[in-house]
């Protein structure tokens, strides 16, 4: 069974990156609780994963906090894991939880695809996103979700959080059985002592489970999962793990050399995080990599980026 994403208007898109080989029945919570995991280990990994694992180990020895996990998309077999149970800062990765809540709400007639939302001065925030640079002050719910998926739009994120409520996002997250992954706050230009210290946190184990479940249509329902995958398929940030896949950052919803991918990245000072699904001619994988580091030296940041790309190269070798 394959899944299809949905475009901003809710129609079926062309993204079709993952097969579904069910791991048995049971609730979402029970499947998640049964997921395997481990610390500082490679589990029955092919030889081509040793390079990325060694790169992560080198970073860890140099003071970078690393959490990572990769699983086979069809079988759920753990390919490698590094402290995958640890809850790490994940920056904008937590916006996926917001998109899930928004997608689930679209089944409500009073909160449809075309519901118009208006930005306000209280929502204003800088950095990622394009809405802050546009003249139009009102956009539809699905358009805002597409902006979040495509450019991790901070202003669109804040308007959607204000509309659905952070408490609702948290309740949905708990309902899914996630205990180490959460969207903690609005996006803020500056975080004060009374604000959450991070936008979001997550464990690699929970994040890989979440994306696998989205691919299988198991998050809320098949329609909700497809909408979220569709929005994420628009993501233009291929600068981290996905930099190794050779895809067009601005257009990768169709198969390219047999590869299909969806991902969400998180970037802030001292944090680099990515979770995604990569499917190729030979196999599919779900992966999550998060790093926390001292961002005072450019060379440290570049070493982190190189380490994430090394993981991506191994993932590519596994699927292609």
Describe, in plain words, how this protein is organized in 3D:
This protein has helices at 28-33, 50-61, 95-105, 141-151, 154-164, 166-175, 204-215, 222-232, 298-319; strands at residues 65-72, 78-82, 88-89, 116-118, 138-140, 182-183, 200-202, 260-268, 271-279, 284-292. It is globular, with a radius of gyration of 18 Å. The protein has a single domain (28-319), classed as DD-peptidase/beta-lactamase superfamily (Beta-lactamase, 3-Layer(aba) Sandwich). Mean pLDDT is 86; it is low at 1-46. 33% of the residues lie in helices and 17% in strands. It contains nine helices and ten strands. The protein starts with 27 loop residues before the first helix and ends with a helix. Strands 2-1-10-9-8 form a five-stranded antiparallel beta sheet, with helices on both faces. With 320 residues, the chain is α+β, with helices and mostly antiparallel strands.
